[in-house]
């Protein structure tokens, strides 16, 4: 957390707030967050004097396009951006401040200090880690095709949930939305990915895309502390079928939602709606 829908929501709100602002200087209070370049002063120098032209996203990464460089930001577990007025004090969890020439400042706060920032010369960002290691998108006009998803899943013997959490296989999915998408597709999280029949791959892809798009439309899911760039919560948590609903009745069949561990992650399942086996015709087995 945050996952693709939350990062996309942050991208949208930061786009409203930041486009056209010129960076006056950069303060870094936790140098370990800056991964590229490995010198904080060089990082600040790359950004200083640059104007924000647009903001993109790849998987869970934000991409702030400046005049000559790109700032790639990963929020990890607790990272948050907020645009502050001139004279606003830093909170104790604010570790990066980007000040603009109009007196406002973009504060990056991160309680757990897991977030990362990379600054690249524009045009090189996709060829360098971390973006070079990120798989195809599961939403939008350039989303992964069912054939490509099937090919990637056939190459791994991991549980399908563990495979979908692999950011190099497909971008942006985390624990919440994998559980939700697998429920919608009627697939048990522990089923080995390579055993999924071809008939189920388009069903799974549609479940992933629909779940993510609905979450984007609702502003993301606020389970713990997530808020967007304007400090607003998301509302998709009100529509969750399985995640975080251990012991509650399934919204489709009434069976209590179970919790297990798959691939080292807490996993939520309806054992009736998501049988733990499928045959090669794509039919559910009990």
UniProtKB/TrEMBL annotation:
It catalyses: Hydrolysis of DNA containing ring-opened 7-methylguanine residues, releasing 2,6-diamino-4-hydroxy-5-(N-methyl)formamidopyrimidine; 2'-deoxyribonucleotide-(2'-deoxyribose 5'-phosphate)-2'-deoxyribonucleotide-DNA = a 3'-end 2'-deoxyribonucleotide-(2,3-dehydro-2,3-deoxyribose 5'-phosphate)-DNA + a 5'-end 5'-phospho-2'-deoxyribonucleoside-DNA + H(+). GO terms for biological process: base-excision repair. Residues 2-115 form the Formamidopyrimidine-DNA glycosylase catalytic domain. Its EC number is 3.2.2.23, 4.2.99.18. One of its GO terms (molecular function) is 8-oxo-7,8-dihydroguanine DNA N-glycosylase activity. Residues 241-275 form the FPG-type domain. SMART domains: Fapy_DNA_glyco, H2TH. Monomer. Belongs to the FPG family. PANTHER family: FORMAMIDOPYRIMIDINE-DNA GLYCOSYLASE (PTHR22993). This is Formamidopyrimidine-DNA glycosylase. It comes from Bacillus selenitireducens (strain ATCC 700615 / DSM 15326 / MLS10). The gene is mutM.
């Amino acid at each position: 957390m945050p996952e693709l829908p939350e990062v996309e929501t942050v991208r949208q709100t930061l786009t409203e707030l930041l486009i056209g602002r010129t960076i006056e200087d950069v303060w870094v209070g936790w140098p370990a967050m800056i991964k590229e370049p490995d010198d904080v002063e060089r990082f600040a120098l790359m950004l200083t004097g640059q104007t924000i032209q647009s903001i993109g996203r790849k998987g869970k990464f934000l991409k702030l396009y400046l005049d000559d460089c790109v700032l790639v930001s990963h929020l990890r577990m607790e990272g948050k951006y907020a645009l502050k007025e001139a004279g606003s004090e830093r909170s104790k969890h604010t570790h990066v401040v980007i000040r603009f020439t109009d007196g406002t400042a973009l504060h990056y706060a991160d309680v757990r200090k897991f977030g990362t920032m990379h600054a690249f010369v524009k045009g090189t960002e996709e060829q360098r880690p971390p973006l070079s290691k990120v798989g195809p998108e599961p939403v939008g006009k350039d989303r992964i095709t069912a054939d490509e998803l099937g090919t990637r899943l056939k190459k791994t013997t991991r549980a399908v949930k563990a495979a979908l959490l692999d950011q190099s296989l497909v971008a942006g999915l985390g624990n919440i939305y994998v559980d939700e998408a697998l429920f919608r597709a009627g697939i048990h999280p522990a089923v080995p990915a390579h055993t999924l029949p071809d008939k189920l791959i388009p069903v799974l892809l549609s479940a992933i895309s629909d779940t993510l798009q609905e979450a984007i439309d609702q502003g993301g899911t606020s389970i713990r502390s997530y808020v967007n760039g304007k400090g607003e919560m998301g509302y998709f948590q009100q529509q969750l079928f399985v995640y975080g609903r251990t012991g509650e009745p399934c919204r489709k069949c009434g069976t209590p939602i179970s919790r297990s561990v798959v691939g080292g992650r807490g996993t939520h399942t309806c054992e009736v709606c998501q049988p733990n086996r499928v045959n090669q015709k794509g039919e559910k087995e009990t």
